[in-house]
Amino acid sequence: MSTPAANLKINSSRLWASLMEMAEIGPGIAGGNNRQTLTDEDAKGRELFQKWCEKENLKMGVDKMGTMFARREGKDPNALPVYVGSHLDTQPTGGKYDGVLGVLGGLEIIRTLNELDIKTKHPIVVVNFTNEEGTRFAPPMMASGVFAGVHELKWAYDRQDAGGKTFGEEIKRIGWVGDEEVGSRKMHAFFELHIEQGPILEAENKDIGVVTHGQGLNWIQVTLTGRESHTGSTPMPMRKNAGLGMAKITELVQEIAMSHQPSAVGGIGQCDVFPNSRNIIPGKVVFTVDFRSPSFDVQDDMENRLYDGAKTIASNLDLEIEFEKVGHFDPVTFDEGCVDKVRRAAERLGYSHKNIISGAGHDACWINKVAPTAMIMCPCVDGLSHNEAEEISEKWASAGTDVLLHSVLEAAEIV
């Protein structure tokens, strides 16, 4: 099997221009993006991606979850395709690169192959997975989860956003319900390029993160119910303060995560307080605990300690408590063969690199269940992500996409 020459690289300025053009769709208020899944902005981003794919003579397929598959044919019609991609949806206050780099990096390798008339044995398919972020419709990585058989299609269609609109209603509204059965495609391999979303690569001056594992994740939604009452006239001992319960559970989450350092993280990033009035003691709070670890045992311990501790806190404050697991995936070990391809590509190109564990969930974590999978990471400034100030350099984007190109070509086999 031939491997690409070390001087084969993508067009850095073209990739960067595409990233900037996509960022014009769904601009945020502070330089980033708000292109949440199944919104009008998401539809416009899809249309731009489709236009670019058509220009490269790629055949577009769409499944019933709205995931887009842009295929470049290989020389062997019976060879399974090599897939590459990520997602175009963003957080409400998201950056310009999270997910988008993986999709447009995949498109850029197709442009490079077409420009140089390089043929491969295996077809190559660029993917845009629907609703990776999970911010509008929980849980995250929803379409890749249905693809991998983790979720059922009907269950996904019934997920509701904060306004009561369902996933099924909204995907029909924006016109992106495909006719393919979800998960019917078979993959030779899958590669996902992503920004690190953490500070390690920049701090250690590494060009490339070779992702060997992914942290497991538990999202546990907690509902505390007390009693609304006037803050000025309700004696302190007679209060049923749901807000106080959340504050104490926040401290508990910190304590649990800190007890498992350095292999675990935990926090509360989303909460709704009712009635959210200055002079009313909260009668109800709904918030989500986010626990992550690459260890099954640690993940289980954190969850169990949360349940026990939070129940005690609620009881002591005379509050009712309910738990709902709204997101979960097990720790991930990526395919050794695909990971080796990424490492060899970085070495062949002369990029500094290190093994890294992904601290965030990605579509690759679910696809790893059904196909050999690996991830490539590039640095981001100060490790900042899920923030409009998210930033990377053109050099970092180019290096990551170069490694993606070489990894995909080794898997797809140049002919």
Mean pLDDT: 96
Distance linking N and C termini: 9 Å
How many strands? Answer: 15
Helical residue percent band = 25-40%
| Contiguous uncertain segments of 5+ residues | none
Q: If you compute it from the alpha carbons, what radius of gyration comes out, rounded to the nearest whole angstrom?
A: 22 Å
- Inertia-based shape: globular
Report on the biggest sheet. Answer: 9 strands, mixed
Strand content: 15-25%
Report the structural category. Answer: alpha/beta
The sequence of SSEs as H and E is: HHEEEHEHHHEHEEEHEEEHEEHEHEH
With helices defined by DSSP (H or I, 4 residues minimum), what is the helix count? 12
Question: Which terms summarize this structure?
Answer:
alpha/beta, about 425 residues, about 20% strand
Description:
With 415 residues, the protein is α/β, with parallel strands linked by helices. The chain is built from twelve helices and 15 strands. It has helices at 12-23, 40-55, 100-116, 142-147, 153-157, 167-173, 200-203, 242-258, 296-316, 336-349, 363-367, 394-412, and strands at residues 59-62, 68-72, 82-86, 124-128, 189-195, 208-214, 216-225, 229-230, 265-274, 280-281, 284-293, 320-329, 332-333, 353-358, 373-378. The strands form three sheets. Strands 1, 2, 3, 4, 5, 6, 13, 14 and 15 form a nine-stranded mixed sheet that branches. A four-stranded antiparallel sheet has the order 9-11-7-12, with helices on one face. A two-stranded antiparallel ribbon has the order 8-10. Helix 10 crosses helix 12.
